Give the backbone structure.
Amino acid sequence: MIVEKKSLRAIVEKIAAETPIADMHTHIYPPSFGPLLLWGVDELLTYHYLVAETMRVADVAIASFWKMTKTEQADLIWRELFLKRSPVSEACRGVLTVLQTLGIGGGERDLNKIRVYFREQKIDDYIETVFQKANVKYAVMTNDPFDNAERNFWMKTGAHHPRLRAALRVDPLLMGWDLTSNLLREQGYEAGSALNDASLAQVRRFLEDWADRMKPLYLAVSLTPAFAYPNGEEATCIIDSCIIPFACERRLPFALMIGVRRQINPALKLAGDGVGASDVVSLANLCAKYPKNPFLATFLSRENQHEFCVTARKFPNLLPFGCWWFLNNPSLIEEMTRMRLELLGLSFVPQHSDARVLDQMIYKWAHSRKIIANVLADKYEDLAEAGWTIAEEEIRRDVKRLFSENFETFVSAKGE
């Protein structure tokens, strides 16, 4: 059915709202992982975005804040950011969107009354509620075998859940061999003090063991702005000798998330990380050297986005994804989505939730869907003005491609 221009925007918004999503990068866990699965209003309020925002305005020392119970921390944040001030930041608005979607909206100011709803939830049923409200088919976790707590759950129970997939995180492998070798030895791998062939074989064995256990959709690493490839150092050696050969052998994409400055304010703990502009050429070097290996990538700094898009035009083995972390704000999502559509057409993944708290999937997708739909509607209107007829089934095809098929095709092709 051909869509008339006057009804185009409403149809695009409807299709964007109805289309299920593959959420390709999150930090959520299955119920079998116990306390690692974060959910509920107190976890929403004590999310590190809101902790950092609260510390800007509250007359409370950060050391005192960390001595509070979770409930006390949530009470403080609610009081400072929602009651003393209008909750206009995106992180605050997100909490309200979650409450409204769950039927707890209407400007409820009493946090204890809000808590009643979450206390009544059974976690297995609530997970399904969240996925249905967010209209997410499944979510990809971030799974770190170097994290002691997470590793214990993998060894005991595994992470079998119909709504969750795994991604194997390999950050510590690239953080200096002294650290890496110690971590490997702690898990029983005979990594020597020197990065030689024998040690590299242990890295490969580690990757093989954990990939067999996790069945990941891709390998992933978060990197600082200082990341450079090639640089003649240990990280380059491990990438060339272990990660890329292993990824090619298993036909796994390698996802690089680049640009986080670690702990610029350590007192804030998880909220203490910052952002910096990175070297996009290093990513181009990887894509050029390994044209048969698929790379997923996202950059944290706004300043990198244009060069990143231009680079992606040159490498079909590179799939840009999401508006990561500090970029997950409406004005920047809109800017980046427009740029990517204009430079890459429909060949990217516009968003991932990056949710650390289960409930965050609701607001991050509700907000992003509207922005993506608005930008797409503008582009379809541009096509209509250029004389191109637009059919509703074509819009559905395009949105499905952006919301799930680009990622799923990329991970299933795996280097072909």
In short: The radius of gyration is 22 Å. Residues 155 and 322 are 31 Å apart (CA to CA). The chain has a mean pLDDT of 96.
